[in-house]
Design brief:
The complex is a heterotrimer of chains A (575), B (187) and C (349).
Chain A lengths: L1 H12 L3 E5 L6 E4 L4 H10 L7 E9 L7 E8 L6 E8 L4 E3 L8 H12 L2 E3 L54 H4 L10 E6 L11 E7 L2 E8 L7 H6 L7 H5 L6 H16 L5 H30 L2 H22 L8 E2 L2 E2 L7 H23 L3 H7 L7 H6 L4 H5 L7 H4 L20 H25 L17 H6 L1 H12 L7 E9 L2 E9 L5 E7 L2 H6 L1 H5 L4 H11 L3 H5 L1
Parallel strand pairs in A: 2-5, 6-7
Antiparallel strand pairs in A: 1-2, 3-4, 4-5, 8-9, 9-10, 11-12, 13-14, 14-15
Chain B lengths: L1 H21 L3 H21 L3 H26 L11 H24 L14 H9 L3 H30 L12 H8 L1
Helix pairs in contact in B: 1-2, 2-3, 6-7
Chain C lengths: L1 H9 L8 H38 L16 H11 L10 H18 L17 H22 L3 H32 L4 H6 L13 H17 L24 H25 L9 H4 L4 H20 L7 H30 L1
Helix pairs in contact in C: 1-2, 2-9, 2-11, 3-9, 4-5, 4-9, 5-6, 5-9, 6-8, 6-12, 8-9, 8-12, 9-11
Classes of the chains: A alpha+beta (575), B mainly alpha (187), C mainly alpha (349).
């Protein structure tokens, strides 16, 4: 597939392609800046490629080069299975033409590149900063931006009246002037601008949405994120590969285990490292545990948003049993840091299986109770069916993945489409919805809990004995007697401890099915002990970018119900 | 006892009526008006007209004033008028009130109307209903019809407006907006 | 009140008093008794709510204060609220902000006057008691509006508007629902309505099919009337932060709280006297030696428990659905119910 798509592109755009590469099986094409839009449009429309999903756009900074910035487009086709990485280079101050007219998911992704690198996107409808504060000066991910330099920013952004930024049109006051404005130019009083968040009970984490309400109907809305931005990606560039693992706990803090697995999965791909079978099975177990806990939190809090508080307790009680297992396994409840490059932090403890099975029976009980309380509940159905509905095409266009995408009827799951950790050998189903509304999202998640329990059950049954850490000397510390008795062993130990794991130069995109969708790490290594660039592809970033469109025309209560069902985790959204 | 209550409630009613027309903030005024209504209701109660008293609270203080407040809130805070009263309007108002008060006083003094004593049964719900459904049946039914017509008209007006305003924005199948609320407000 | 007046007139120290002073004193006593009862009762209900919620949600609820299952928790909370700083939002409307909690509490408190706890235990046996109770409970919405407007907070304002629309709307099915019973008994006096259900269990109005429909409509509408789940839209903590009382702290907040729980009891007590046989146990022989107020209060507490139970079971409706249920389901249904009952009565005679 990779070779074929590269061939096709070469035939079509031979002159525009600067470099073609398929390192580690990732098809990668570097295109001249001027042809970016054309090539991407081709990738999207060409029937044999059909890259309908723009996963993410990453920037990379090479200050020593003449065209110092690389803009990397990660493409995926749900129909043909094509995976494609398209790159272009751009000099400081230059602009790339926007692709937000091709994929709506490009809107926020390009804003992020602009925010963190200062690369402008020509024709972008809303070229504002996104993760950093609007008063922030400089671009944080440029290599010449000092890592310790903080800035104090105070004035909150006025989202709805923000017209200073050239080309900003999200509110589009002009076109509705008769309705929105009175003679003095102030917003007419039958519309009320209201701030949802950042401190609002329904804004899980810290999100901010400013909505313009007509009665209780949302006429227009704009969102602001970045309240939890702590520059994970910049931090990663300053840490050794192993040291980054604890930071991944804080991305999606609801399913930290899955994040740990995702990160080491990407790094091991770059190292071309095989992990022992026992570690692989345990990783499957813990990432499914993470998925279950994530879904419990998401569905529980979503039901609270709809007013059914009791379900929250049923789920959180079950989650508490899961957390007890996690705590015994990792020593921590939330910040698990359980995986290591090449293996795991430590083996399962004695009695893990019976503990986990007990916890899972509790989860099953909780799920049964909640399903009984809500699934056929008239009020709940009225509140959830048809609320925040998204069609499959739109969802893909917005870059949705995971349960949210599946609720629209697309059966895309990384575990099935691009199996990793041996998922192809497990027997499980992918639940899909029909309407992509709040109701389907909740039911999809609940069914995924069942499927994850099936996977865990199979994994526990097949769990082989053996080591949990790869013996590969590039990542594993040598045994003690070797360190003490041979110079090679001691050198190896010394190098690993002082310089960290050396990942060969190159770049790769490693991805797994996180609890909320495709969780990917796009990593560029220069062969040193630290990553040169690490871009996380958090599943909820593109999902939240569609939120304001999703709730327009809905009522406030619907917006709250919708938000809960999207499972926006501010930790990975803002990074 | 009777007299004490009469003067107590009467005075408070007059004071709150005065506060109603002197407060600048329409919402505060409305609350004084409600207070005034409550005192008038209390006066009715002392006259054994319990039904009227309760109706006064339920309909005037409860329902109608809620709609007043509702509308005031819809109009928004900025629109609260803070202007000084127009002297002409003020003068005309004073004159009108004076004329009505004078006329009433004359009516009472002249004794041309018979304000005879009524028994405690006069204000009970049975007595009032009997009157409404016998002597005044036609007027009663007519009023009911009139109110129904007004209500249907109000609902229709709100409906049409709501549709016109929302048709362009609400995607098909999406739940309709606060039409329900508006209908109620108008009804 | 009459009972108090009688007691006073027999008491030695009150012999020489003027009649107006006597009745004034009696009023004070009656009012004080009710006020005390309301406050203690509301605190009890708050504790009940927390315990019931706890057990429904497989947890304990308050466990420590008062040693036995946290029975004194409400008192501790009351003391805490009393000692809390009284915070005023900037630009709040001082007058409205201050009277709002009082209006809410007064509205709830006034209704207690007509509740027939027993044949002789009633504050004032008004001819139009039922009507009066509805009227005073509509005062509560005034407090909600004053709070929403006075707080100068958009969330509060939304809560207040929702509250106003909701309470006014649901008063109509509430009133219409009890009318068949009123037609049957021929009185609006709550005591008389209860009295009409003397005898065996099946003489309760609940067991008449027409009245049963009324009862269901009344029960659901009363949930809306007191802003309880699934109709807690004025305060929806996930949407409106805390609705109309978002800005309130300390004792002012406590008044809203007390008012809400007192109101729950009032609507339950009305349901008991209209539909559930008032102070009668349903077995004539038992009625003779069981104290009437105990029966009445127990039944009302049971209905309060039902409200709590529903709160922790159901999700909440959306505003337009709430209005839909009222205007397009309950009002036509209760009108039809009334009409059918009238028809039956006129035919049977």
């Amino acid at each position: 597939m990779t070779a074929k798509s590269l061939e096709l592109l070469q035939q079509r755009f031979g002159a525009e392609l600067v470099e073609v590469d398929d390192y580690l099986g990732d098809a990668s094409v570097t295109v001249r800046k001027s042809a970016v839009h054309e090539v991407l449009a081709f990738c999207k429309d060409e029937p044999t490629l059909r890259c309908d999903l723009l996963l993410d756009i990453a920037g990379v900074d090479h200050p020593e080069r003449e065209e110092r910035f690389e803009v990397v487009y990660l493409l995926r086709s749900l129909q043909t299975g094509t995976r494609l990485r398209l790159k272009t280079t751009v000099a400081d101050g230059d602009a790339v033409s926007t692709v937000s007219d091709l994929w709506r998911s490009a809107n926020w992704a390009e804003r992020e590149v602009y925010d963190l690198y200062g690369v402008r996107f020509e024709g972008h409808p809303d070229p504002r900063r996104i993760l950093c504060h609007h008063e922030f000066e400089g671009h944080a991910l440029r290599k010449d931006y000092p890592i310790g330099k903080g800035q104090m920013c105070y004035v909150p952004e006025a989202l709805l009246t923000d017209q200073q930024v050239e080309g900003s049109h999200a509110l589009d006051v002009e076109s509705r002037s008769g309705q929105l404005q009175n003679v003095d130019g102030e917003i007419a009083s039958d519309l009320l601008a209201i701030n949802l968040g950042p401190s609002h009970p329904a804004m899980h984490g810290a999100l901010r949405v400013e909505a313009l309400l007509d009665g209780e109907t949302i006429v227009d809305a704009r969102s602001e994120i970045g309240y939890l931005h702590r520059c994970f990606e910049k931090e990663a560039e300053d840490h050794t590969w192993q040291q980054i693992i604890p930071y991944t706990d804080r991305l999606n803090y609801v399913s930290a285990l899955t994040n740990n697995v995702a990160y080491v999965h990407a790094v091991e791909k770059m190292l071309q490292l095989e992990v022992p079978e026992r570690a692989r099975v345990i990783r499957v177990i813990v990432s499914e545990m993470g998925r279950i806990m994530d879904h419990l939190v998401c569905v529980g809090t979503n039901l609270v948003d709809i007013g059914a508080l009791t379900n929250f307790w049923y789920f959180f009680n079950a989650r508490e049993y899961m957390y007890e297992v996690v705590e015994r396994l990792c020593g921590e409840r939330l910040t698990t840091s359980y995986t290591r490059i090449g293996g795991l932090y430590r083996d399962l403890y004695e009695g893990f299986e019976s503990d986990l099975r007990f916890a899972l029976t509790k989860v099953a009980e909780g799920v049964k109770d909640v399903t009984g309380l809500v699934q056929r509940n008239r009020i709940f159905m009225d509140r959830a069916i048809g609320v925040g509905a998204m069609s499959a095409e739109d969802a893909i266009d917005w870059g949705w993945t995971g349960p949210c995408l599946r609720s629209t009827g697309v059966d895309y799951d990384v575990r099935k489409a691009f199996p990793y950790l041996g998922y192809e050998t497990y027997d499980f189903d992918i639940p899909v919805g029909e309407n992509g509304d709040c109701y389907d999202r909740i039911l999809c998640r609940i069914e995924e809990i069942h499927q994850s329990m099936r996977i865990i059950d199979q994994a526990l049954k097949r769990l082989p004995d053996g080591p949990i850490q790869s013996p590969d000397r590039r990542v594993a510390l040598p045994p003690k007697d070797e360190v003490y008795n041979s110079i090679e062993g001691m050198m190896n130990h010394f190098k690993l401890v002082f310089e960290g794991i050396q990942v060969p130069a190159g770049e790769a995109y490693g991805f797994i099915e996180g609890a909320n969708g495709e969780l990917g790490f796009y990593i560029v290594s220069d062969g040193s002990g630290n990553p040169y660039r690490m871009k996380v592809r958090p599943p909820c970033f593109p999902i939240f970018s569609s939120f304001t469109e999703l709730v327009k025309g809905q009522m406030v209560a619907d917006a709250i119900a919708t938000l809960g069902g999207l499972n926006i985790i501010a930790g990975e959204l803002d990074r | 006892m009777q007299g004490l209550f009469f003067y107590l409630f009467g005075t408070v009613a007059v004071i709150s009526a005065l506060l109603t027309i002197t407060r600048r903030d329409p919402v505060t005024s409305a609350f004084w008006l409600i207070f005034c209504f409550l005192n008038v209701a209390a006066l009715f109660a002392t006259l054994s007209a319990h039904l009227i008293a309760v109706l006064q609270i339920l309909i005037y203080a409860g329902a109608i004033m809620v709609f007043f407040l509702f509308v005031t809130m819809f109009l928004g805070k900025e629109k609260r008028s803070a202007e000084r009263p127009n002297p002409v309007v003020f003068g005309v108002g004073v004159l009108t009130v004076g004329a009505i008060a004078g006329g009433l006083m004359r009516l009472v003094r002249s004794g041309s109307h018979d304000f005879g004593e009524v028994g405690p049964e006069h204000g009970t719900i049975e007595a009032v209903s009997r009157l409404l459904l016998s002597n005044y049946l036609f007027a009663f039914e007519l009023t009911g019809l009139l109110l129904t017509v007004a209500m249907v008209g109000a609902v229709l007006l709100a409906r049409r407006e709501a549709k016109g305003a929302r048709a362009t924005r609400t995607p098909a199948g999406a739940p309709s907006g606060p039409a329900g609320v508006e209908e109620v407000a108008d009804a | 009140m009459e009972a108090f007046q009688q007691m006073l007139s027999q008491a030695g120290w009150a012999q020489g008093m003027q009649p107006w002073a006597l009745s004034g004193l009696a009023m004070l006593f009656a009012g004080g008794t009710i006020l005390g009862g309301v406050a203690v009762g509301a605190m009890f209900f708050i504790w009940t709510e927390r315990k019931v919620a706890g057990y429904i949600q497989s947890r304990y609820g308050p466990m420590y204060v008062g040693h036995f299952h946290g029975v004194l928790q409400s008192i501790a909370d009351g003391v805490k609220l009393l000692l809390k700083e009284d915070i005023w939002p900037t630009d709040a409307d001082k007058f409205l902000f201050r009277i709002a909690p009082l209006l809410v509490f007064t509205g709830a408190f006034l209704s207690f006057v007509v509740l027939p706890f027993g044949p002789d235990f009633v504050g004032a046996s008004l001819d139009i008691g039922l009507f009066y109770a509805f009227a005073t409970s509509s005062l509560v919405v005034m407090g909600v509006i004053a709070a929403g407007w006075g707080s100068n907070n958009k969330w509060s304002l939304y809560g207040a508007m929702r509250g106003a629309a909701q309470v006014i709307s649901y008063e109509i099915p509430l009133g219409l629902a009890v009318l068949p019973v009123v037609m049957s008994v021929g009185s609006l006096n709550l005591g008389t309505l209860a009295e009409a259900q003397r005898g065996w269990l099946w003489s309760w109005h609940l067991f008449n099919p027409i009245f049963f429909v009324s009862f269901v409509i009344y029960l659901i509408s009363s949930l809306a009337e007191v802003n309880r789940v699934p109709f807690d839209l004025p305060e929806t903590e996930s949407e409106l932060v805390s609705g109309y009382h978002t800005e309130y702290t300390g004792m002012k907040f406590a008044f809203f709280f007390l008012g809400e729980y007192a109101d729950m009891f009032v609507v339950s007590a009305i349901a008991v006297s209209v539909f559930l046989g008032g102070w009668y146990t349903g077995i004539p022989a038992v009625d003779a030696f069981v104290p009437a107020p105990l029966v009445f209060i127990l039944k009302s507490v049971f209905l309060v428990f039902v409200q709590i139970w529903l709160r922790w079971t159901l999700p909440r409706l959306r505003v337009d659905q709430l209005m839909y249920v009222c205007w397009k389901v309950f009002i036509p249904l209760s009108l039809a119910n009334l009409f059918i009952y009238g028809l039956i009565r006129s035919m049977v005679g």
